[in-house]
From TrEMBL:
GO terms for cellular component: signal peptidase complex. The keyword Endoplasmic reticulum applies. This is Signal peptidase complex subunit 3. It comes from the Eukaryota. It holds the Pfam family SPC22. It is a single-pass type II membrane protein. The keyword Oxidoreductase does not apply. Belongs to the SPCS3 family. The chain crosses the membrane at residues 12-32. Keywords: Endoplasmic reticulum, Membrane, Signal-anchor, Transmembrane, Transmembrane helix. InterPro entries: SPC3 (IPR007653). GO terms for biological process: signal peptide processing.
């Protein structure tokens, strides 16, 4: 007769096998879908400043600011086909 630890080990191994099969099934159903959606990117403002760098001895560093707009219609992407 098997001990409690042996039965727990068998149950744990079986549940891990089931979880691995479910994970692989989820991967297979979603890995090869076409996920392209229309995206628009517009840069509206680019600014470059030369500022003091307080980490080094009397050096200056460039600091860049970019403002851009991203528009994407992600609701077009179907969840289930």
């Amino acid at each position: 007769m098997n001990t409690v630890l042996s039965r727990a080990n068998s149950l744990f191994a079986f549940s891990l096998s089931v979880m691995a099969a479910l994970t692989f099934g989820c991967f297979v159903t979603t890995a090869f879908k076409d996920r392209r959606v229309p995206v628009d990117i517009h840069v509206s403002k680019v600014m470059l400043k030369n500022v003091d760098d307080f980490t080094g001895p009397r050096e200056r560093s460039d600091l860049g600011f970019i403002t851009f707009d991203i528009s994407a219609d992600i609701l077009l992407m179907p969840i289930m086909r």
